[in-house]
Amino acid sequence: MPGAHADGIPSTVPGVRLITLGFFSALALGVAGCGSVSSAKEEPAAKPVQLDVTQAKFSKTVQTSGDSVVLSMTITNAGSNPAPNVIVSLGGLEETTLENPEDETRIRTEKDDLPDATKRAAWFIDEAPAGGQYGASTLYEGGALAPGRSRTLRWRLGAQQPGKHTLTYRVLSGLTDNEAKATTGQGISGEVSATIEANATK
Fold first, then answer.
1. pTM of the prediction?
2. Which run of H or of E encompasses 84?
3. 87 strand-pairing partners
4. Is 173 within 8 Å of 86 (Cβ atoms)?
C-alpha cells in the first residue's frame, strides 16, 4: 500500500515505501561534511520547488553476487519554479562493523582486504550519474530542472553481499538548508529493495 508524507501527500511510486526517520538529519550531516552548505545567515531565500519521483527501481530485484545492476530514478519538476540543482542522497551503501563477525556468513575472496570485523556493503557504486558525486559523500547531482521537465538518473551498482537489502533515498532541489526545506513533492523520500543471492560458482 502506498506510503504517505508527513504533510499528508500520498506516494504514487509503485513498490516504494516512504521514509522519514532520521534521513533529513543524516543528509544535513553529509552535506556539511562536504563544506558546501552556507550558514543560515548567508543563505538566500529559496522558492518552493515541487519534485515528484515517478519511478525508482532496480533493473533486477533478484540479483546474484557479482552482478552489475542499474538503479534508475525519474524525477519530474511538477511545480512552477525551477529546481536549482537536483540532489539525490542515497543511504544503505555503507560498510558496517559487526559485533560478532564470526557469526556472520560472508563470501570472502583472495582479493578481499576488508578487516574481519567489517561487513561489506550490499552494493558498491561502479558508475554514478553524469552530474557526479560530492566528494566521498552519498550525495549525487542531477543538475537544474525546469518546471514541467523530467530527468532519469542512473547508477550502475555492483552487487556483492548476499541477503535482502534496501537502499533509501531523498531528493532535494539544492544543497542549502533553505533549498532543502523548500522541496516538496510525491515520492521524494523512499526506498527500493532487492535480494542478492550467493554466486554458487565462487
1. 0.71
2. strand 83-91
3. 141, 172
4. yes
